[in-house]
Each structure stands twice: as C-alpha cells, then as structure tokens.
Request: fold
Amino acid sequence: MTALQPGATIGIVGGGQLGRMTALAAARLGYRCHVFSPEADGPGAQVAAAATVADYQDLDALRRFAKQVDVVTYEFENIPLVTIRELAEIVPARPGPQALEISQHRLVEKTFARELGIATAEFAAVNSLQDLQAGLLSIGYPAILKTCRFGYDGKGQVRINGPEDVTQAWADVATDEAILESVVAFEREVSVIVARGLDRSCAVYPPVENHHVNHILDTTIAPASLPAATAEAAIDAAVRMAQAIDIEGLLAVELFVTADGAVLLNEIAPRPHNSGHWTQDGAVTDQFEQLVRAICGLPLGDAAVATPTVMQNLIGAAVDDWPRLLASPGARLHLYGKAESRPGRKMGHVNWLGGAAPDNHGP
Ligand code: AMP
Reply:
C-alpha cells in the first residue's frame, strides 16, 4: 500500500456540496481535485483545480478524466454503476463499484444487512401489484412502499395505511422494482459514519441524532445521547457493514432506535453524509478530511468529539439568514455557492458549537 503524496490529484465524480467540502479538505492536505459532473460551475467545480463537464455515461470523457487523476471517489450514489466500473478499469476507485451497487438498491442493501445478522424493518420484494398484496399479508398495515433505486430525501416512497391505499400506492411508486417495509415505531433516528483506510483500520464517529422535516434532514445533534449499549449496537452494525462491503473511504449508516433500545438499519451511503457535517467544527478530524486520508492511503485521523455540536441545514430561503448567522456567537457558517435557492434545496449549513442553538435558530 503506497500513500498518494500531497500534490496528487483526486478525481471526484459528482458536482455538489459534498464534493465541494471534500475538495476543500483535500486542498488543506496539499492535494488537487478534479471534479467530473454534468453541471458547469457547480458547488464542487467552483473550488476544484480542474473540472470536466460531461454526462456520466460519456465514456470518452470518463477515460480522459481517469487518466488525469490518481484516485477516484464519488460524492453521491445515484450515478450509473457503469461510470465507476469504467473508471475503476483505469484508476483506483475508492470506494469501489461494489459499495455503490449495494447502496443503490434498497433490497440488496437490506438483504446484505440481514445476512450479516443486522436487524432491519421487515421487508419484502415487490415487482407487481400481486407481490404488493402478498407482501401486505405478511407485513400488515401500516407499511411503506419504496422504489429500490434513486430514492432520496423521502422521494419515491409511499405510506400504505390500509387496503384502500394499495392500488394508488403501486401507481405512485411508478416502478417494477420496489420494496415493502414495515413502519418502524422508532424513538430516534441516528447515524454512524465509519472511515476505513487502505490498511483496513477503521475510525468511527460517535452516533448522532437526526431530525427530519418534510423527509429532509434538518438538524443533527452530535453526539447523540444514547444508553451506552445502544450506542455500541449502532457502532457495531456500522462497522460490520463497512468491513463486509470492504469499503475504502466512508460509510454512513442510518439507523432507527426503538423505545426498547433495538437498533435497525435503514440505509447506507458510501460517501460523506449530511449528518456528518458537524465534524467540520465539532470533531478532531472532519469527515471530508477523513475521506481524503482513507482513499489516499494515509493514516486515519482522530474521530473523537472536540466539542458537542448541533448542525442545522439551511434549506431553501433559510439561507437568507446568513448575515445574522455570521454574527451569532458559536455559529460556524458553511455555504455551498449555489446561485439560486429553491424550496427543499440544501444551500448551506450552520454548526452551533457547544451543542445548543440559540432559541431563535434552534432545532
Ligand atoms: P429513507 O429514504 O429510507 O431514508 O426514508 C426517509 C425517512 O422516512 C426516514 O429517515 C424515516 O424518517 C422515514 N422512514 C423510512 N423508512 C421507514 C420505516 N420502515 N419505518 C418508519 N419510518 C421510515
């Protein structure tokens, strides 16, 4: 295992804020970044040393890009698998295609977890209205029907409360690859981010508690206040997933915690995660630097909490509050350079150091 020396170039597939913050962290360690994205002048390209603007399926552009970088990573998981497979033929892709393949498909992801003995909601594969009816017989009501692919921020999922919802739900998901899940009566939603290096060592951030509004992450409280056994179970599930996937980079694992302390895996993402943004100001090493260290073969950094932190997303017009946030003691503002704010669009976030946001901004 040879480490990539500072001065090497990291290729980032995807042009959004996660790539932007990765590029900023990489620059701190002396690396250059080259962003590949269909969008010109997006959040990532604005701060990268180089950018390729091309479609994810443009094989010529992908090959040219691969030859100009020393390692490739990706900043969101809804890119075609073929893109990463193609790149991986030419240059190390970290995480590799396998991590993408598992995390792109809810059924594969949950089956993978179950095979490792990690608990999930009850689920059934649904490829037809008949499958849906059969699944509901075993899972019962209420249930959630989700598309297996391309779901994010609550998109592509429908709740089924009773038999009267079934036909409409099947029409609404508009796919023939779906998963039916039991509704988990969770007490909290938490996530754990695991960094895993080329030497297979892991650095694990403590579980954090996530609050969603309209299915979009609104607030993360770091660290989560959980009984020690629950925190250990969450960490154990996340580390086992990271090891079984053989991840090189970051794995974010979202989990439900029930009132009796059971921990159920909901979703994974093989990339930096919105619920890890607190680490930029609240952890010894932030998740973006940790990704850079992992994929470049450097030793991982300390994932310990430096100061309890509350991360608040600035979604849509909330970003207009930036002057006030800049002037607030204990607030660390991060903006993504997006020209236009739209409802539901993540425009930036603020990390409140000390673990409590003032009342007028608080969660
Ligand atoms: P997902 O896209 O799977 O992360 O789902 C988005 C949000 O919907 C989650 O963060 C939960 O708040 C809720 N949700 C998803 N699946 C379930 C489930 N099986 N039971 C209860 N709530 C769920």
Observations:
- Residues 25 and 310 are 21 Å apart (CA to CA).
